[in-house]
Design a protein that fits this description.
heterodimer, A: globular, B: Heat Shock Protein 90, five-stranded antiparallel β-sheet, 5 strands
Amino acid sequence: MDAIILEPTATTPKVIIDPSKDKFEISGESRPENAAKFYTPIIAWFDNYKSVLYFQKESFGKAKSVNMDFKLEYFNSTSAKFILDIFYQLEKIKKDGFEVEVIWNYDARDTDMKESGEEFSSYVPGLAVKYVEY
Amino acid sequence: MNPGNSVIHEIYQYMNDKGVVISYLGGFNQDVVNSLLGSVKKIVNESELDFRTKKRFYAVAAECLDNVNRYNYEAPGSNGFTKTFFNVSSDDNFFIIQTGNYIHKDQKTILTEKLDKVNSLNREELKKFYHEKLSESPARGGGLGIIDISLRTGCKIAYDCKPIDGDVYFFVLLTSIKK
């Protein structure tokens, strides 16, 4: 599957979704003018990635794990809905028996951002979320 | 026109006395939002607020501007209902963010219902309400912004709707962040 690599802009975060490099990361500021347009391809990507993982499992006996890093400085409330959708996609992958971990990186001074991670996590209790201060 | 007769100095003094730190009146689009938030970020970073309050201030300003964007009424043709007002002022205890823009009657009903609902809830209820709203599909900005502002400021959101002409109202939203 093609990677998604998006450089950050004033309104959109940096996105690296590149399984060939084991890199899954969304970082920076997220307040896109059209959040649906920005996030829908990312959410669809994870939906499609399941078939790749199934193929790996059948062919090699084991599929690669997904370690998804969030390192957000700010996201607006519209983005929150889509970030939650990414959590849901990751939960589906996990429920299908694949290894998934979310790493929620936050500035040590920004306890609100940590709480946001906990809020997302509360919808997907089966998904492991690791909180990492930076 | 003689600049000596201009009211600019009076306006300047009035705004300065009111503690204005940024004020904008004009057309509204994403470039304007980005520019205003750039200024907000600079003010916040130069302030002596603690880190978390800085982040909250920025977030609230961003949500207020998103809110204008969502409900802004731009009448077809040019009848003057096009400009938007954004103002940040400061006093000893608070930063105050105000927006002013025209809204249509239908939007007024939706918006004021959300504001009244959010203002009626205590913090725990507000968190619960946020939790419910966040998981609602389809993913659109269904009122989360207003809840977000209230949670981050810890204050009720003040607003006013002034009837202007037929179905058009001038909507003012005021929110404050404790220093």
